[in-house]
Every structure is written in structure tokens, then in C-alpha cells.
Design a protein that fits this description.
This protein is an alpha/beta fold and 483 residues long. 40% of the residues lie in helices and 22% in strands. The structure holds nicotinamide-adenine-dinucleotide.
């Protein structure tokens, strides 16, 4: 399975250009160069895709879970068989190290599809018996045509995290990957055809958010929207979808705290904190960007953490020694650099990194930045309140559990939090009080696909993962039958 120079939409089972015939440049961010083109689609393409999805719905929703399982499982198999080409394409498109695409992004895309393909054949609904009078049974029926919109940071990983449960539950889908990283969604379209997915079941429309994404959200025949992306985009989507009474799942931004107590396993914590700070250049919604360290170990942490951060190798995504590749785009690099400038204006001291890096050869024009550690900022400044989504963390000392909790909960976001301590009771007290949809204790990004996934406050509405996703993508109907 090879990437093509001209990406196509996947509508009604066919790979076709946008109806306008126009294309958008697709950039390889490590090279800083255009390397392919994606369709510049609009509402007309969305309309054709929705019509195809509507036509496909009766057969797909009624074919039975076993048949849907077989088709989806074949898609997962094709991804597994083509792991190398998917991983290569993901890294060219996003600038992330191919080692990461190969070990995280693509295996997880495979697992997402396999997980929900399998889940649907085990999915059961509830019954409630009213003794001597009646029994209730609840039907869980697919909704119809649903919309799935995903971001650029984990392209195929997050795209499949949405479409797999939607399709498994019997819906047909109109989906839009990020225009910044469209390639592996295009390759997935081909995998669906090869797996024998009926035409119109999955439709992938490429293009810009305000044109294609918004047309999906606005379309009256699209009954539910599952969106992952920025909080401001989520607001716009909610404003359109809520008055239309669409079901909405919004997975939005984060500003995740990482709380490190003096009684933690220091060696394990430092390894995982480096990972939780800078994996994928900090471009993971679950990265810990505010690190709170108990004062007695603050200096020890600072010395070791800065030393290890400086040791991280930034460079060619295809080199085996690279830890961090390029940022995803020029605009994003500029945004992260403006956040670094703001941190300095706010009185922060950049202990290391934060510099634009000049590379040589093929990656001379790429968007590289050295990972930055900042100290000396108060909890309520913009740097500690607003999402940066880059290789930037702040470190701040705390004295008591209460103080750590207050700072950790002191933002509008509530996606995830990490706690490092060997004291189980303290870990449990923290987990209970942290305002976050996901709390990791003595680990980070350890994921069980059966668990609920999502954020509180401005980090989102609803939960993905396991049965939560299948519930979202089905309509519950209770049938009460009298004796
Ligand atoms: P974004 O909001 O700019 O774009 C996300 C998707 O929405 C893209 O496909 C985009 O084209 C589309 N879009 C843009 N405007 C739209 C509109 N008006 N209507 C409909 N669709 C529109 O986000 P991004 O920059 O691609 O991704 C980074 C953001 O995603 C960060 O804020 C990050 O925290 C968040 N994120 C959250 C999670 C989570 O699970 N909570 C996971 C990954 C990323």
C-alpha cells in the first residue's frame, strides 16, 4: 500500500477528486516542503458523501454484528500487514519519529478497529423486569449517518478511534481527517475497499475545517458528531450542533498537571516524566505540561530533568537515534515560539531549549525546536493556563498535598493528571479530588481500550472508549411489555 501524490476523497466506495477539482498542498514538515496534495472539498462533496452514507445505512445496519465484525477485522488485518508503509506515511506527513509511528500510532489504529469489531459481537443491552407485571428490554440501535472529525497529532490513531465504534455499531460515517495530516486516512480508504466494505459505509472527505468539517456538522442528515480537536473549534461545533439536537462527543484541549511527591520512585518517575512531557514533541493532548514537584526534591528533579531534556536528540524522523522529530507545521512552530516569548515576558526562566534548530541536508527547511523547561512562573499566568501543545513544560515547587491539588485543579481544563507517590492512600485522595477525566498513578499513557476516555470542564463533553463509545453511537430505546 503506497501513498500517492494526489490524495482522493473516498465517497460511495470510489476514490474521487473534490467536485471543485481543486487541491491543497500537503507539506512534509521535517523537510519543510510540499510533497503531495489533498482535495480542497466543500459542502457539495459533503452532500454527495451524506447521500451515499444514507443509501448504505439500511444494509450495513441490518447485516448483523458478525458480518460487520468480519469486514472491520479485515481492515485491521490490512493495516497490520502494511504496518511499515502506514508508519512511513504517518511520519512523512506529521514529522514524528518513524519509531513512534511504528510502535504507537499504527499498531493502535489496528487495535482500535480490532477492539470495536470484536466488541460489537459481545455487546448486549439491558433488561429490567417488573415482577408479575411486565418486562422492559432496551434496544441499542444505530443512529444513522454520523460525522467524525479528527486532529493532526495522532492522525490514524484518533481517526480510527472514532470511526471504528461508529461503524461497528451499524452507523454509516462521513469522516474528515485533519488537512495537515491526511495521508493515512487516504490509505485507510483503500484498505476499506480491499476489505470488501460496501460502498458508502465509510466516506472520507478531505479539506479544510471551516469548509468540510463545518458542512458535516451543519448537515441535517448527520445525526451525531464525534469531534477531537481544539477547545475553540469544539465551541463552534457545539454552537451549530446543539440547537439541531445532535448527539455530541467533544474531546478537546488540555493543560495536564503532573504532580510529583517526594516519596515517589524517583528513577521511574524521571523516565516517565520525560516521556509525558516530550513524546511526539508534546503534541499529545495527554502530555503533562505543568509539572509540580514537592519542594524537598525540587532541585534534584530540576537538575536531572534538565540534563535529560538536553540529551534528547531532535532531528530526522527517519533516523534511529531521533527522539523528537519536527513540529507538525510552520504555523504551529511559530505558535509554540510565541508561547515561549510570552513565558519570558511573564517572568519565566527558560532553563533549556526553546530554540529554533537549524538542520542540514534533506531536513534543512524543517520545523525543528529544542524541548524547553521553564521555571519561576506563577500558577495563574497565561503560560500555565493556556494550552501550548508543543515541547514546553513548566516546573513549579509545592509544599503540601492541598497546595498541589489547588494548583493542579486551577485551570479551565480537565483532561488528564499524573500523580507520583508510593503512598497508596495519598494517591487515592488525589485521584478522588483531581478534576480530570483520566488520572494516572505512577505511570503515564498506560491505556486499556475498555476504559472511559475524555475530559472534564473545557476539555470536553462525553466519553469515548469501550462501551461508552458504543453507547454514544447507538440510540437507546426501551420497550416495556406487559404480561
Ligand atoms: P483543530 O480544532 O484545529 O482541528 C481539529 C479538526 O477539526 C481538523 O480536522 C479540522 O480541520 C477540523 N475543524 C477546524 N475547524 C472546524 C470547524 N469550524 N468545523 C468543523 N471542523 C473543523 O485542532 P488541531 O489543531 O487539529 O488539533 C490540536 C488540538 O486537538 C489540541 O487542542 C489538542 O489538545 C486537541 N486534542 C484533543 C484530544 C482529546 O482526546 N481530548 C486528542 C488529541 C488532540
Amino acid at each position: 500500500m503506497t501513498p500517492d501524490k494526489y490524495i482522493k476523497n473516498y465517497i460511495n466506495g470510489a476514490l474521487i477528486p473534490a467536485s471543485s477539482g481543486d487541491y491543497i498542498d500537503n507539506i512534509n514538515p521535517a523537510a519543510g516542503k510540499v510533497y503531495s496534495h489533498l482535495p480542497d472539498s466543500d459542502a457539495e462533496d459533503v452532500q454527495i458523501a451524506v447521500e451515499a452514507a444514507e443509501r448504505a445505512f439500511p444494509e450495513w445496519s441490518k447485516m448483523g454484528a458478525q458480518k460487520r465484525f468480519r469486514i472491520l477485522n479485515r481492515v485491521a488485518d490490512i493495516i497490520e500487514q502494511n504496518l511499515e508503509s502506514f508508519a512511513h506515511a504517518e511520519s512523512v506527513d506529521s514529522g514524528k519519529p518513524v519509531a513512534m509511528s511504528r510502535s504507537v500510532d499504527i499498531p493502535r489504529a489496528h487495535d482500535n478497529i480490532q477492539f470495536f469489531a470484536t466488541a460489537i459481537i459481545h455487546y448486549a443491552s439491558e433488561a429490567h423486569h417488573m415482577e408479575g407485571t411486565a418486562f422492559n428490554f432496551t434496544l441499542r440501535q444505530p443512529i444513522g449517518v454520523v460525522g467524525c472529525i479528527s486532529p493532526w497529532n495522532l492522525p490514524l490513531y484518533l481517526f480510527t478511534w472514532k470511526i471504528a465504534p461508529a461503524l461497528a455499531a451499524g452507523n454509516t460515517v462521513v469522516a474528515k481527517p485533519s488537512e495537515i495530516t491526511p495521508m493515512t486516512a487516504y490509505m485507510l480508504s483503500k484498505a476499506c475497499s480491499e476489505a470488501g466494505m460496501p460502498p458508502g459505509v465509510l466516506n472520507v472527505v478531505h479539506g479544510l475545517g471551516p469548509k468540510v468539517g463545518q458542512a458535516i456538522v451543519e448537515h441535517p442528515k448527520v445525526k451525531a458528531i464525534s469531534f477531537t480537536g481544539g477547545t475553540n473549534t469544539g465551541k463552534k461545533i457545539a454552537a451549530i450542533a446543539a440547537p439541531m439536537f445532535k448527539k455530541l462527543s467533544l474531546e478537546l484541549g488540555g493543560k495536564n498537571p503532573n504532580i510529583i511527591f517526594e516519596d515517589c520512585d524517583f528513577d521511574q518517575m524521571i523516565v516517565d516524566t520525560l516521556r509525558s512531557s516530550f513524546s511526539n514533541n508534546g503534541q499529545i493532548c495527554l502530555c503533562g505540561s505543568r509539572i509540580y514537584i514537592q519542594r524537598s526534591i525540587y532541585e534534584k528533579f530540576k537538575d536531572e530533568f534538565v540534563k535529560r531534556t538536553q540529551f534528547l536528540k531532535v532531528g530526522d524522523p527517519f533516523s534511529s537515534v531521533t527522539d523528537l522529530g519536527s513540529l507538525v507545521s510552520k504555523a504551529h512552530k511559530e505558535k509554540v515560539m510565541s508561547c515561549l516569548a510570552l513565558a519570558e515576558v511573564e517572568g519565566g526562566k527558560i532553563l533549556c531549549g526553546g530554540k529554533s534548530l537549524e538542520m542540514k541536508g534533506e531536513i534543512k527547511e524543517g520545523y525543528f525546536l529544542s524541548p524547553a523547561v521553564i521555571e519561576g512562573l506563577p500558577p495563574n499566568c497565561r503560560t500555565n493556563q493556556e494550552e501550548i501543545f508543543g515541547p514546553v513544560v513548566t516546573i513549579t515547587p509545592f509544599d503540601t498535598e492541598e497546595e498541589a491539588l489547588e494548583m493542579a485543579n486551577g485551570t479551565n481544563y480537565g483532561l488528564s493528571a499524573t500523580v507520583w507517590t508510593k503512598d497508596v492512600a495519598k494517591a487515592n485522595r488525589m485521584a478522588e479530588k483531581l478534576q480530570a477525566g483520566i488520572v494516572w498513578v505512577n505511570c503515564w499513557l498506560l491505556r486499556d481500550l475498555r476504559t472511559p476516555f475524555g475530559g472534564m470542564k473545557s476539555s470536553g463533553v462525553g466519553r469515548e472508549g469501550g462501551l461508552e463509545a458504543l453507547r454514544f453511537f447507538t440510540e437507546a430505546k426501551n420497550v416495556c411489555q406487559k404480561y
